[in-house]
Amino acid sequence: MTSSEEARKTYAEFEEKVSRTVFLDNLSTQSALVEMENEKQARALISEMTNYPFMMSGMPRPVRAKPAKIEMFADRPPPPDRKIQVRWVDPSDPDFVVAKKLKQLCKKHNAEHLALIKHQLEEEEKLAKHQEETLKTNYKKFEMIESIVQDGTTSRLARHYGVRLDYD
Amino acid sequence: MAVFLHGTTDGGLQKVYKQVVAWKLELEDDQPKIMVLSKDKKWINLLKPRKSYEDTIRTMLITIQLLHFVRRKPQASEKTLWEHLRGVMSTFEVRPSEDDFREHISLMKLFSERDQVLANSQLLLEFLEGKPRKRFGEVALDSSTLNQPFIADDDEVDEDIKDDADDDSEDESDLFDSVCAICDNGGELLCCEGPCLRSFHATRKAGEESECKSLGYTKAEVESLQNFLCNNCLYKQHQCFGCGKLGSSDKSKGAEVYPCVSATCGHFYHPKCVSELLFPGSEAEASEFQKKIVAGESFTCPVHKCVACKQGEDKEVRDLQFAMCRRCPKSYHRKCLPRRIAFEDIEDEDIIQRAWDDLLPNRILIYCLKHTVDEDLGTPIRNHIIFPESPEKKLVSDMQKSKIKELAKNKVRELARDRTTMKLVKATSSEGNHSKEKVVRSVTQHAFGIQKKEKSLKDQSRSDMDKAVRTVFDDNKTPDKETKPTASTKPVAKTLSSFPHIDSETEAKVLALLEKASSSLSLENITKKRSMPSTHTCGPRHIDKTITQGKVEGSVEAIRTALQKLENGGSVEDAKAVCEPEMVKQLLKWREKLRVYLAPFLHGMRYTSFGRHFTKVDKLKQIVDRLQWYVQDGDTVVDFCCGANDFSILMKEKLDAAGKRCYFKNYDIIQPKNDFNFEKRDWMKVNPKELPTGSKLIMGLNPPFGVKAALANKFIDKALTFKPKLLILIVPKETERLDKKIPPYDLIWEDGQSLSGKSFYLPGSVDVNDKQMEQWNLNPPPLYLWSRADWTTKHKTIASHYGHTFTEQEIPAEEGLVKKPSEVLAAEDHMEQEPSKGVATSQGTEARKEDTKSSGGRNKRFSAENCSGGSRKRRRSKKKAKVSQAKEDGKLSDMSISPDHLESRTRSQSHLPSEPVETPTERANNQDGYFSSGMEFGVTTGGNDIFKDIVNDDIDEIARRYTAPAAGEGMFNRNSHGWPTGGIGSHDYGVPSSDSRFSDYTRSNIDSLSRNTYSNDIDGYRRISETDLRAQIRLYGTQGQDERSQRNGMLLGGSDSVLGQPRLFPPPSYGPSSASMVSAMDRYAPRLDEASYVRPRNQGPLGPLPGTGSIFDYDIHGVRRDRPPNSIGFAPGPHPSYPHPGASGGWLDE
């Protein structure tokens, strides 16, 4: 029974790996699985990522961190004690209806899921536009002020007025 | 009646329930102290009111804060007072207002009778007299008194800066209308971003009080608005303020109305209207002017001149403030205001109130006599604002109307038809075809195309028919859901479910689910869950919405125009009408705010959240190497902002090797990879109970700096509550020094050099080459080691033993006897009363004369403690009056209304170390008093409540100490405290580096820097007690400032002999003084500080490499290049002719 023991061992190792892996979503178009040294670090990472905005080059990114799940690993080993049997079911078989229903349900879920994602993407885009607009207008204001500060207009005027300006 | 005190003590651990018999209020400390005397004769300090009592005591606390503020800064303006109060009382929900202390006038009177400073305070007097202030509705409270000359005390300015950084709610729209354009009342307003510069009550609720019809938004709508533009600005249709008619203001499409160029005006005019108003008598001139305006020339509207006297406004002078009509272009000076425009109703003469103070900043709001005031509203009828309707909207709405009608018609028919279709569908095909065709024809009379198609499809099947019907429906754009023939949709729905594409049903279902879920969420709740570090809770996450684009645009335009006017030979008066001086300042404030808000964007790669920057490991090693000797067995090393948590580990390695067993504690808000003794905590929330007693604590190291070192200060203040015996700090120079704290800490050493260059890195940052991004400062933060006063002796011994104070400066040990210039000068000062000591007395006086002369041109912001010896003298000359006043206060300021004076005194004394260490304010006083006579010194010191006790006990002895030829410890004390501060360069200068992250946006700083820094230079020079140099200094004094800055380097170059000079002055008077241990120890202090002065000499000419700089590098770059060997005593002057364009310092990357 060495092979089953081995399988069990591999699976345990894999589970341990999953527990210390963090799933990073929304990175840009991709997502990533990040393996940490231990579970504690993974947990800390998730809490930090949830708590603070994730900054990249000085800009916040909508990155999310979640604990990884077994299903996220394409190369996952099979659970050691699971046996899968495949058989053909005749349309007259009562199981055929069950299987059909499950298939339908699965498709329905998928459709709903897609709808949700679509909606979310739209929302995100709206938010991004909104934020960009805010940033742009504020930056425009800043630029305007900066332009006259830079060309010395303010300081010259202040000198005319005899006012001292505090640049800092 | 027995009064009982109920509450908790020891941080909530112990309950208190005691009878109290007396109370007192101490105003001398940093914070006002309220104490009660329990029956068993113990003073209990009251800290925080119970939550349930907060409302009751709020007004009282505000009054106390007011007294405290006025007591400390009798000269402060009302504005700073309010700012201060708001800052202090920020934990309460209601903002402090004048009403709050109206009930406590008696208390204020009581104190002003007992306290000289308070009695003399103009500000308090005004409050006591209850200056008549009319208000209507809710009023912006930021009215600053104008009669009050703004004499900015040095400390006060510092505080202002801090307040600025802390308090974002500070009166931002000071220069702009702070009332609703519709109802002319204050309150919660929504600012239009456009050029009209108006504000509105956005919701009915906000304008409830004045029955404002408001913009009629809902609260949710307001919150979701990003950039609000009023309809006028949105459609570029503004009303002419002259005739009230709407006109296009869109310059690209041929404008009809033009805006007044004044920065704060926001009114539009038809060229004709404004010309007629400006030139009422002469038509020719008016038409000429009209043409100019149309051609694009800017103009200031008649609002900016008084109707009565035709003169401009001066907000600084109360009489020359404007009263502006809200409905037409008419303004009066306060002094020119007709009597019938009154501040209150006068029934006999049938005068109704038309003027209100305090509604507009520094202006009076009036309705001129042209307008009939509605008695119910208290204002004229509010029909003055016309919002244009959008041209497109108009079209759209018209179309919609006709459409709706049509649709209604169609619908009826459709319904009828549907029924028939349904029936027909069931009928036989051939019949069906015929009848259907008929129906379709009758229903869709205008859809001929389809009808034709229909005809051609005559012989087609039923399903085709259905399709056609639906096409017709679509074309008509009918809400077809309910009318859809169910027979045809049903099978479609069934087929859809088997395809994984998103059908509308699923989508709707999902959306409904989402809506349900999101309604249970609120932004507030989510932000609550996120634990932000307490230091950042009120960060600039939201930019002030009062900085509207219109205001910025207008102001920028106005400033340009004003300058243009001036440079074309216009008068300052004219320019001021366009743009008042305050506007320029305001603009810079905005810039600052925007810069902070935009920091992540502006700095991109170099932005680091929460100001986090870590010290590199090799630098930490150096620090650990030095620090280890001060650590004793059993100590706890606390890193309150541990970053990557390297420091503790390095420390542990070293200490383990030395056989010392120590404990470690590391705090940070973000988990580091290395969790050695780490606790994820907000340092501000660590309780003193959690750590061992202060004498076993060593704290450090590198707090976030924050804007103007605000964060660093916070971290240090928190650390001080633990009373650690040692504090090792990497903080920027503008951080408040620990010898200024109460109780003060002593500086063991300061190293401005070791953290220069690339000493820091940004956490987690990786550049394109996968390397950590380094960070370095043009103006490196020094490394300080501060000791608690009672440990100073020990630590200084260690310092001298391991050569920490000398290795750097390489001064031979016998330096102890050789005085550095500071001491010489200090001695000089001291000797003034005792000419027999004969150290350059004449020079001393000369220098002082010089001082008074130059101090005139110097700006007031300079705090004396940042300048060196010379400035201290200046302070004396400036503040002489104050000092004598302070003397008296010392006696008078004891406010306790209690039977038990002595006890309280000894108590307050007890927290002091055994040797008389002075507090910063005291020190200033000491120095001042010091010059006149020893006796006076003693008395002056008495001015401070802490020191008082000692002095009162034995004035004579202290006086003797100070007047004695042996120049006792007091003398040294003063040096040891006074000098380090002199050494770190000016505070003023520090400011730019404080928000170092913004460095490259401050390119234009140099201008102001150079202006700021002359005084320091002079001070530095003056320290050198050298005659020929002095002559040169005198030269400086007479020269224009700009020249002075140019000449610094040259002059310095010429004074080679200075270096040796101090050593040639072994003041005989110091010899005998080394008797006591204390003074001998203290004598090290000046030498330690000398580190900063002497060092460059040994280093020889250092290139002006940015980043290698110690203090000197930054401060006196130019100087050092010119004359490397002579920098003694010159340090504090930041050199004006600083060569780097990025001189503002801060984090720069290559």
Which secondary structure elements does this structure contain, and how are they paired or packed?
The complex is a heterodimer of chains A (168) and B (1150).
Chain A: H1 2-19, E1 21-25, E2 32-35, H2 39-51, E3 54-56, E4 59-61, E5 64-67, H3 94-150, H4 153-161
Chain B: E1 3-9, E2 14-26, E3 33-38, E4 43-46, H1 54-72, H2 78-88, H3 98-102, H4 105-114, H5 116-120, H6 122-129, H7 154-166, E5 189-191, E6 199-201, H8 219-224, H9 231-234, E7 237-239, E8 246-248, E9 258-259, E10 268-269, H10 271-278, H11 283-294, E11 322-325, E12 331-333, E13 355-360, E14 363-366, H12 391-426, H13 429-443, H14 448-456, H15 462-476, H16 486-497, H17 504-519, H18 523-529, H19 549-567, H20 572-578, H21 581-603, E15 614-615, H22 617-627, E16 636-639, H23 646-657, E17 663-668, E18 678-680, E19 697-700, H24 710-720, E20 726-730, E21 745-751, E22 760-766, E23 772-777, E24 783-788, H25 792-801, H26 821-831, H27 841-855, H28 869-892, H29 901-910, H30 920-932, H31 934-942, H32 945-953, H33 955-963, H34 969-983, H35 987-994, H36 1005-1023, H37 1027-1038, H38 1041-1054, H39 1077-1082, H40 1084-1099, H41 1111-1115, H42 1117-1122, E25 1147-1148
Parallel strand pairs in B: 11-14, 16-17, 16-19, 17-18, 19-20
Antiparallel strand pairs in B: 1-2, 2-3, 3-4, 5-6, 7-8, 9-10, 11-12, 13-14, 15-22, 20-24, 21-24, 22-23, 23-25
